[in-house]
Every structure is written in C-alpha cells, then in structure tokens.
C-alpha cells in the first residue's frame, strides 16, 4: 500500500518537473500497440480487483470475425517494476492506498507514454474507481496508441494534392506511401496495402448526396455501402461484388470526425456469390455545407489471421479525414 502511494508521488513529481522543463528528453517508449502493462499485486490481479479489470481490458473488439480482446496484457507486481518495464508505452498502476483516485500522466519515464494510476482506500473503493472510469481507461490508452500508429506509418505519405478525387471532391485522407493506388477516377479513391500470402488492407473514400433525413441520421449506411460495392468493387466471377454481410447488421455509433457529425460502422463485408469475407470499419460524415455524406472505409482480407491491429491501423488513417 505504501509502495503504491510512493509510486504515485514519484509520477506526480516527474510530471511537475516536466512542466518546468519543456526540453527534458526521454528514451523511446517500447511495447506494441494494444498492449498494456498492469502494475499491481499478484494477489489483487488474481482476485476480484483483477476480475473487474479483465471485464474492461479483455472486452472483445466490436466487428471482428473472431473474438480479440481490446488489449494484450502483461502484469507485474510493484517490486518487479524495473527500468525495463518503466519504458513501456501504456502502463496501468492499480492498488489499495490512502485515497480513492484516478490520475493520468504522460511521458513520465519514456516517450510517447501514458500512465494511468487508480487507487482506492479499500477493495470496494478501488473496484468502484475502476468501474466509474472504465470508459476513460479504454479511451485514453486507445487514443495514445492511435497517435503512435500515425507517427509511425505517416512518416511518408501520398500528397493529397496529387490524388484526383481529393482535389475534385474537396476532402482528403493522409495515406501512407506503402499503400498503392488501385483506383482514383475523380469520384472515388481506392488504395491497397499488400500483406503476406495474398492478404491485404484496403482503403476507400467517396461521397454521396444527402437525399433524406435517414441519410443524415445514419439509417442508410448499409444501403449506401452496398450500392457503392455493386458499382465499384467487383468480385472474381460474374454478378459478384462487395456487400455488407447479410446475416448480421453492423454495429453503428454516432461519433465526431473532423468536427462534424459522423457514424462509425463496424461489421463484416463479404463478396456476393463468392466465399470471401472480413471485417470493415467506415465513417460516414455528414457534410451539411456541401449537402453530402463523405464516406471513408477500411477493410482487411486476411483469412485465419488476427485482424485487430490491422483494423486499428486503418482506423488511425481514416481519422485523418479533412473536409474543406
């Protein structure tokens, strides 16, 4: 209990010092995206407190064909929290100490880095703090990982001014240079990143006019998507084309993209009359100024392979959307 309190004080001290010295340099953080280091007692991790955390961090990512948890987790007790572990990109400190608290710190031991510390006076108080801040935990670590992905993959990117559709339509995405152009005809953009074994990650961008309140309220996302697939994404045989999986409705959430009302859709795509399928993520952005819906989408074709991190990379790219 005392050790966790001391750790919290050290983190606070580091943050205070950093504010007073903006030139402070850090070692580069280690750890893959969607990986989380949890620092807490083994007994607490194995008990009710750990169970409550697992409900959050092991929750399956929405829209994937097979269940994949939000995070891969490594847990260490405070006594083993050595310099090697301190350089981890995402750290969650949890334990019973003198107060109920939830704090967030950045760039404490390395950069980029996020450290969340959750404490409680009692086991019940700690569990309550975890429950109360469950969404914050996911949002903070996910946002930090998205930014890390962008820094990594967008060091080199295609100039949007040289992409015909973006110039004509007045919107753009920042697309990494390792994605290769499949189509850019002034109406829609299609870029592809080749994975091993004939697998791939695909990016699409297009727009459609707003014709009804249902368009603005996200009620026609599947219909718009299927119409686009039928017209532009053909399959390998006659009368085959990409559609939204017919067996299940995608998960749709109202969000904000580029400061505008948007709808995030996560589900599965398939090719009509052909046995091909995989996960997709799309953002349908309501561009009232230009009376249209701007759609950006990413999907993965990688049978038999975990796809969480691929879809995470696509999300990072899709959220670079800018509309004039």
UniProtKB/TrEMBL annotation:
Classification via Pfam families? DUF4837 (PF16125)
Q: PROSITE patterns, from UniProt? A: PROKAR_LIPOPROTEIN
Please give the superkingdom of this protein's source: Bacteria
What is this protein called in UniProt?
Answer: DUF4837 domain-containing protein
């Amino acid at each position: 209990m005392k050790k966790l309190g001391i750790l919290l004080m050290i983190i606070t001290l580091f943050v205070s010092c950093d504010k007073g010295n903006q030139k402070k340099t850090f070692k580069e953080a280690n750890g893959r995206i969607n990986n989380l280091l949890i620092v807490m007692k083994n007994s607490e991790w194995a008990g009710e407190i750990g169970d409550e955390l697992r409900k959050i961090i092991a929750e399956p990512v929405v829209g994937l064909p097979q269940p994949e948890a939000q995070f891969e987790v490594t847990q260490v007790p405070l006594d083993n929290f050595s310099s090697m572990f301190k350089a981890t990109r995402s750290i969650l400190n949890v334990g019973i100490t003198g107060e109920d608290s939830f704090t967030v710190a950045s760039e404490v031991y390395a950069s980029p880095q996020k450290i969340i510390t959750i404490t409680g006076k009692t086991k019940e108080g700690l569990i309550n703090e975890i429950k109360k801040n469950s969404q914050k935990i996911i949002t903070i670590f996910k946002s930090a990982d998205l930014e890390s992905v962008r820094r990594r993959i967008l060091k080199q990117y295609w100039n949007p001014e040289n992409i015909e559709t973006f110039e004509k339509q007045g919107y753009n995405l920042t697309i990494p240079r390792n994605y290769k152009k499949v189509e850019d005809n002034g109406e829609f953009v299609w870029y592809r990143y080749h994975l091993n074994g004939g697998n791939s990650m695909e990016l699409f961008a297009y727009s459609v006019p707003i014709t009804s309140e249902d368009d603005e309220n996200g009620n026609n996302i599947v219909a718009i998507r299927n119409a686009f697939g039928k017209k532009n994404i053909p399959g390998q045989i006659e009368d085959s084309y990409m559609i939204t999986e017919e067996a299940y409705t995608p998960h749709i959430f109202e969000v904000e993209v580029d400061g505008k009302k948007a709808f995030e859709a996560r589900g599965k795509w398939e090719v009509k009359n052909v046995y091909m399928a995989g996960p997709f993520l799309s953002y349908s952005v309501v561009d009232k100024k230009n009376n249209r819906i701007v759609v950006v989408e990413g999907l993965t074709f990688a049978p038999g392979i975990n796809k969480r991190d691929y879809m995470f990379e696509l999300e990072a790219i899709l959220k670079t959307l800018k509309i004039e």
